[in-house]
Design a protein that fits this description.
One of its GO terms (molecular function) is DNA binding. InterPro entries: HTH_LacI, LacI/GalR-like_sensor, Lambda_DNA-bd_dom_sf, Peripla_BP_I. The chain is α/β, with parallel strands linked by helices. Helix 12 links the parallel strand 8 and strand 9. A six-stranded parallel β-sheet has the order 2-1-3-4-5-11. Helix 1 crosses helix 2, helix 1 crosses helix 3 and helix 8 crosses helix 9.
Length: about 325
Amino acid sequence: MVTRSDVARHVGVSDAVVSYVLNNKSFVKEETRMKVLQAIEELGYQPNHTARSLKTKKSFQLAVLTNYIGNPFEAGLLLHLEAAARNHGYMITYQSYCDGREDELKILLAGRVDGIVLLGQSLDAGTREFFLKRNVPMVSVMKQVQGDVVSVDMDWEAAYLQIIRELVRLGHRHIAFMSHSNLLDPLCCRLEGFMRAMQSDETFRSMDCTFLTGGGRYETAYQMVMELAEAPEFTAVLCANDLMAIGVNAACRSRGWNVPDRLSIIGSENILMVSETHPPIAALVYPRSEAAYAAIDILMQLIAGHSVNSKVLTADFVERPSLAGAAKHS
């Protein structure tokens, strides 16, 4: 069996240097790090994670609570979270979050993970306290509607403000915002940001605004539009996530409503699918890689016992053919 000492001798460094590389310590020279990693691969060295855990009293496992694994936005976040955790020597396990079944979550994760990454879930205060008492800190990618967990998320008020200004410039005076009917769903933080943006300027307060619930999913958004009694009065719909924007676009096509001549559609994440619809859908760009790496960095600091503040990200906007001037609407 290849040992750590074998790797050290092969490279010509001390056992401690190999340990530093395995634990991703930043003070190792990059050239040395690459030599050690190459030797590990060539020699087939397998770190003894059990011994490491016994020595450090850590599991080197993190849990990520997912909402809907079928959402490409979340799937992309998971890939980035996994890569970021690996850089710190951690493995990630995924667990679907079920509202009202947090006792099962305690049984499943207690004593098995060093930290938890939320995807915007608003855990009960008792659940948060349960894990904190056991030195299992949490960070959330996407701010929660309620709770005091440190988070990484976009400034939704600023993001939607730029969209509203663009809609006003294009002549839209009646717009819709599609979100989620569950007021604890993280999409409702985006709804709150939209409402704050609408109240931030006297010009916007005179606009008509319709609020729609699309359940956060393609199918629900599609069905909601299909059930409208007639063509809506609003000329643009801003969706809190991209799956709903794609569902609205598909429903418009089924009903014979031209996009963007009849209705402009905008998403909020810029997953790959929105650039492949007909027409391609304009969208805010959620920096998933930046959010994931920032969240893991924060969690590592929390595990080390440091105090860390939430991180706010800025959004770019990609204009695509689903957005047009209101003057074109009939």
